[in-house]
Amino acid sequence: MRYQTFTLGLLLLTMYACGKKEEKKAKMTNTDTMSCESSLPSRFSATNNTNSISESKTVSYEGMVQIPSGEFLMGASDDEGRQDEYPQHRVKINAFWMDATEVTNAQFEKFVKATGYVTTAEIKPDWEEIKKQLPPGTPKPDESLLVAASLVFTPTATAVDLNDASQWWRWTEGANWKHPQGPKSDIKGKENYPVVHISWDDANAYSKWAGKRLPTEAEWEYASRGGLIDKKYFWGNEDPEKGKPKANIWQGKFPYLNMAKDKFAGASPVKSFVPNRYGLYDMAGNVWEWCSDWYTPDYYKDLSRSIATNPKGPSKSYDPMEPTVPKKVVRGGSFLCNASYCKGYRVTARMKSSPDTGLGHTGFRCVADIK
Ligand SMILES: [Ca+2]
C-alpha cells in the first residue's frame, strides 16, 4: 500500500497504485481491459449527525419503479472484471421499489430544509476521528487544512500518470452539495442534477428521513441489469463509446481531454439518457451511487456455495488495499469513467469508499420494501 500526500500536503488520499505489472499487462492486452482505479480517494472523517434524523414511517413512492422479484447471476463472467467481481454466483432477490433516478439537488434540499441536516463536507474534520482510520504514528496534518472541504475534480493540463489521483482531485475548502465546484459555485438551475459530495452517512440520513433505505449491492446490480442476462452493460454488450451516447461517461483522454460527445463534461440532469429496461436512469455513469453493504473483496466467494437470498453484504468491511479504513460499496461509475482508466459503468464493476467520504462525483438513490 502506498499513502500519498494530497495536493495541499496533507490529505491522506489513500489511493492504491496499479502495480507496474498490471500496467504492463494492460498495455499488452489492450487498455480497454484496464480498470485502474481501485479505490476512491478518502475524505477526512467528520462527526456526522445521522442519529439526529428520525425514521419516517410514511413513504412516497413518487418517482420510484417497482423491480420484480427474481433470480440472477451476480458478478462478472467475462475477463474484464477485477478480482472482486468473481466468482459469478446465483442470487435471489425479492421485489422492491427503487428510485428511478439519482437523488437530485431539489430532493436533497427538501430534506435539509425539513431537518436542518448538515452534510459531512460541511463539517470541520475531526483529527481524533481521522486518526482511528490511519496507521499508528501518522502525523497530524496542518491545522489550516482541517477545514470543512471536499474533493473537487480538476482536469489536468496534459497526460499524467494515472496512478496518482491527487493530480486531478483538489481538497477544496467550502465545496459541498450546495457548492459543487467550491464556494463560488452554486446549484441554481441545477435542481434536476444529482446531488453530489454526499457521504454514505449523508445518503443514509436522507434515506431514513424519506422512510426508505440504501439498496444492497445485490439489489443494485440486479436492478441495473434490468432483466438482461449476462450482459456487460445495462444496455447490452455494445461498447459505450460506439453508436449513440448511452450514459454520461468520459469520452476522450482522462483526465485532461474531455470530448463530451455525450454533451456533458460533468454531471448531467437526471433522465438525460435512455433508461434501462426497468425504467431506471443513469444506472451507468453520471454519479457513483452508495449501497448499504460493507465491502470485502472475497464476499462473492463466500456466497457462491449455495443460492444467496437477498444478501446484505459482509458483517464487517475489509479492503486489503487500506486495511485500517472501513469501506462501503459504491456502484455504477460516474461522468469521469473512461475505458482507459476506470470502467465503473460495467454492470458488475465494484468500487468502495469510506462512509465519511463524499466527492464531486458521488451521490445515491434509495430503495423501499414492498409492503
Ligand atoms: Ca449513476
TrEMBL record:
| Domain Sulfatase-modifying factor enzyme-like stretches | 61-367
Q: Name one Pfam family in it.
A: FGE-sulfatase
Task: Supply the Gene3D superfamilies for this chain.
Answer: paralog of FGE (formylglycine-generating enzyme) (3.90.1580.10)
Q: Name one GO molecular function term.
A: formylglycine-generating oxidase activity
* SUPFAM superfamilies with a match to the protein in the record: C-type lectin-like (SSF56436)
Q: Where is this region: Disordered?
A: 29-49
Specify the protein name. Answer: Formylglycine-generating enzyme required for sulfatase activity
Query: From which organism does this entry originate?
Result: Flavobacterium granuli
